[in-house]
Amino acid sequence: MAAVPVTIVSGFLGAGKTTLLNRILNSVPSDKGKGLKVAVMVNDFGELNIDSQLVVSAEQNMISLENGCICCTVESDLIAQLRKLLQLREGRPDAILIETSGVSEPSKVVNTLRYPEFDNHLTVDAVISVLDADQFTNLEGSNKRLAMDQLSVADVVVINKVDLVSAEQLQNLKDNWLFPNACVYETSYGELPLALLLGQQAHHSAQSEHEHHHCDERCQHQHQHHEFYSMSWQSEQPLKIQALKAFFHSLPASIYRAKGFVRLSGAEQQMFLLHKVGSRLSIDRQLNWQGELKNQLVFIAGEPFDKKQLLADLEACVA
Ligand SMILES: Nc1nc2c(ncn2[C@@H]2O[C@H](COP(=O)(O)OP(=O)(O)OP(=O)(O)O)[C@@H](O)[C@H]2O)c(=O)[nH]1
Q1: Ranges for the CobW C-terminal domain (predicted)?
Q2: Which of 24, 191, 214, 240 lies 20 to 30 A from 197 at CA?
């Protein structure tokens, strides 16, 4: 049996990984039409599983690796899920897509895929890293270092959100480019031909470190994992939109990412999808909502933050 190609979609928080994943899934010819059978793994860092609710998974096999980081705390879950997929007699996927959380290091996921037990069963097709053209230059400190680490192992870099930047800003980004080995594409909303993203066998193995290295409890190898902090909040009460916007605009910059669903007063039977990425906030009506009518929000920060205060401020937004 041929090895199953695995594509890793990585990139910093909010860069547009889920958007790109959905774009890919919508373009893959469906299984029933004798197309590809794709298994999708998504990894959300926060306690609430927002991404899995956003992925269009119609006929695909969707697996959620929750509440932790795919490259460390949920690595064993990743291994177990990969084993399960490979053991399938029928329905073994033709391709696997892994969307890492925005705080994961894709090189560690590549190393997991290289464990001897997966030899001849899995092959890394490409590591794709999505870059947020709008927010990338504003990243600082450990956020910047992590975003750079993610880019440094990419075979394909997708410069996304070009609709939000001027030609000059984009040129500036490219003039300071540090990753000559990757194929680089520019786009908005991950809109790229499927052929540029899947089945390219683009992976350059030399780019990942620690080949065949399997950490165990005796291992001296230091995981230089970047620390991130998250908090989740759920409530059934509708929120006041103006108060909610003011709340988000007053958050400390270290709370870089927030996402989830909110219920707003005046439209109680609807649900709204909320995204905060760096300084940008969007709140959009969700069409054809099938889930529960309740607020579910996740906050992710590069520094510890006052969770009690955040909860109190959120509760003050309840109508
Ligand atoms: N204007 C604009 N917005 C975009 C584009 N791509 C994605 N977005 C928006 O950016 C926000 C984050 O997109 P996601 O696809 O959820 O980003 P992500 O990388 O999966 O986020 P995490 O998994 O939380 O790290 C959403 O509001 C998207 O609609 C783009 O090209 N242009």
Answers
A1: 228-318
A2: 214
Going by their DSSP bridges, the two strands 38-43 and 4-11 should be labelled as unpaired
The structural domains of the chain, with segments of one domain joined by +, span 4-207, 229-315
Cβ(262)–Cβ(295) below 8 Å: yes
- Quick check: CB of 23 below 6 Å from ligand 1? no
CA 276 to ligand 1 centroid distance, Å? 9
Q: What pLDDT, on the 0 to 100 scale, is given for residue 60?
A: 58
Atom 14, ligand 1: which residue's CA is nearest? 16
Pairing mode, if any, of strands 271-277 and 280-286?
antiparallel
Residue 8's CB is within 10 A of a number of other CB atoms, namely 27
For ligand 1, mutation pick of 19, 129, 135 (most atoms within 8 Å of CB): 19
For the record, the structure tokens of 227 come out as 């620390």
Neighbouring-strand partners of residue 298: 232, 259
This model of the complex carries an ipTM of 0.99
Q: What is the DSSP string of 216-270?
A: -TT------PPP-EEEEEEE-S-B-HHHHHHHHHTS-TT--EEEEEE-BTT-TT-
Measure 83 CA to ligand 1 centroid, in angstroms. 30
Q: What is the CATH number of domain 229-315?
A: 3.30.1220.10
Q: Read off the pLDDT of residues 162-189 as tens digits, 9 standing for 90 and up.
A: 999 999 999 998 888 777 789 999 999 9
For 114-168, give the DSSP string: TSGGGTTTEEEEEEEEEEETTTGGG--HHHHHHHHHHHHT-SEEEEE-GGGS-HH
Hey, what are 61's tokens?
Answer: 């096999």
CA atoms within 13 A on the CB side of 278: 16
DSSP character at residue 318: B
